[in-house]
Write a structure and sequence with these properties.
Elements: H1 13-31, H2 57-67, E1 71-74, E2 83-84, H3 88-91, H4 94-99, E3 105-112, E4 115-121, E5 131-132, H5 139-150, H6 160-163, H7 176-180, H8 198-205, H9 220-224, H10 244-257, H11 261-272, E6 278-281, E7 294-296, H12 298-309, H13 323-331, E8 334-335, E9 344-346, E10 349-351, E11 355-360, E12 364-369, E13 374-380, H14 390-404
Parallel strand pairs: 2-4
Antiparallel strand pairs: 1-6, 3-4, 3-13, 5-7, 6-7, 8-9, 9-10, 10-11, 11-12, 12-13
Helix pairs in contact: 5-10, 5-13, 11-12
Length: about 400
């Protein structure tokens, strides 16, 4: 039998040239794929992104957990049970009726132990919807630092530079306690009415907006190192509020513990027994935005606030915070400026000596009354140019303070 001849593929010079032309055309097409800046994160009028604009802000606060460029989330292994045991005295309060009818209102939940005493939602919101809690996130630092203090891993009178040798002059000479009490002077500004305030540059570092220079994107660490000061002594006579303080404290916590903040967040989610997710914004390197990056449902914010009523003890009995540090937070701190007269900023919480809590930009507040055991979570979104309006915020705090003082029926 004759040997079978190998199959020959004959390719003409014309076919070869045609193949080259097709390859070049395909390559050119790929290099010319159309793209545009992410419209939600693109900076526009007033140096604000689309989701921050007054007419888009409600959507932004309700959806920030999926609008931020970088984020992570945590779920609890066991859930703190809640059962409805409504206290009609709350529903009948004039302030409750008024504030929950305003167009800014999103949700309000009041709990004591496992009992839901009050619960109400806006028509476009609901029990399963996460909401940005903004600066209420800062209260987690109270739990983390308190635990580190009790474990002997941190000294609040040490300088920040002792723990973060790379930090800039804006924090190097300040003590940890000064940072905890918003008692530091530096060139970081948080005036949201000023379109060139430092806080907007900070938000680039954690992915809430696109960087002004696309070729250079700060991490939290590199941004915080740029903050400067000739003298960190706060001479205002009151708290000098700066969100950067919180993220500096988060980095100190990692440095002294050898643990990632992400593991602390997982522990806190378990200790609170949250039912949904603890959504947390991070920077590109995965560092959590402790100063304002959390999104919670209203019920889960109330579950989280209950940790303070329980003196930092989780639903499983594990001590996640420090009871003595929480008690000390009720007594310490420096006064908050008007219109929050009578309140102090203490260890990363607001307090009047009876409750611990915190506000969030554009209308959030969480309050834990350590005497009555009542915890209240309030969500709203102010669709105005200002970060807050004095009358509105004072009204919310007073309403929640009065609710906290309600005795058991």
């Amino acid at each position: 039998m004759a040997a079978q001849q190998p199959t020959m593929i004959a390719t003409s010079a014309v076919e070869i040239e045609k193949a080259k032309e097709n390859h070049m055309r395909d390559g050119a097409a790929m290099s010319e794929i159309a793209s545009e800046a992410n419209p939600d994160l693109l900076v526009g009028e007033g140096n604000k992104t689309r989701w921050e604009q007054p007419d888009r802000r409600r959507h932004g606060w309700h959806n920030l957990y999926r609008l931020a460029r970088y984020s992570t989330s945590y779920r609890a292994g066991r859930v703190m049970r809640l059962r409805k045991h409504m206290d009609l005295r709350i529903a009948e309060m004039e302030a409750v009726r008024r504030l929950t009818l305003l167009p800014w209102f999103s949700a309000m939940v009041v709990v004591r132990g496992n009992d839901v005493l009050f619960e109400r939602y806006a028509p476009d919101f609901g029990p399963d919807c996460p909401h940005s809690i903004q600066s209420i996130s800062k209260t987690m630092i109270n739990l983390i630092i308190g635990r580190l203090l009790e474990d002997g891993k941190i000294d609040l009178e040490r300088k920040v530079a002792d723990y973060l040798p790379w930090i800039g002059s804006g924090y190097a000479g300040a003590t940890v306690q000064q940072v905890l009490n918003m008692d530091v002077a530096n060139d970081y500004s948080e005036d949201y009415a000023d379109p060139y305030s430092t806080v907007y540059a900070h938000s680039e570092a954690y992915g809430w907006r696109l960087p002004a220079d696309p070729g250079h994107e700060h991490s939290q660490r590199s941004f915080l190192a740029t903050i400067t000061s000739r003298d960190t002594t706060n001479r205002t006579g009151g708290a000098d509020y700066k969100s950067a303080n919180t993220d500096v404290l988060g980095m100190i916590a990692e440095a002294v513990s050898g643990r990632s903040l992400r593991t602390y967040l997982a522990d806190i989610a378990d200790a609170a027994g949250i039912e949904g997710c603890l959504h947390m914004t991070t920077d590109r390197e995965g560092f959590p935005l402790m100063s304002g990056g959390i999104c919670f449902t209203a019920r889960d914010l109330a579950r989280y606030g209950s940790l303070f009523v329980r003196q930092g003890r989780g639903i499983d009995g594990q001590q996640i915070g420090s009871a003595s540090f929480i008690e000390g937070s009720l007594r310490g701190g420096i006064r908050l400026p008007a219109p929050r007269d009578g309140l102090r900023y203490s260890n990363h919480t607001f307090t009047d000596g009876r409750w611990l809590g915190h506000g969030g930009s554009r209308g959030q507040f969480m309050l834990a009354d350590l005497t009555s055991g009542v915890v209240a979570a309030f969500f709203s979104v102010l669709e105005v140019n200002e970060t807050f309006t004095s009358d509105y915020n004072v009204s919310v705090i007073k309403m929640l303070t009065d609710i906290g003082r309600i005795e058991k029926a």
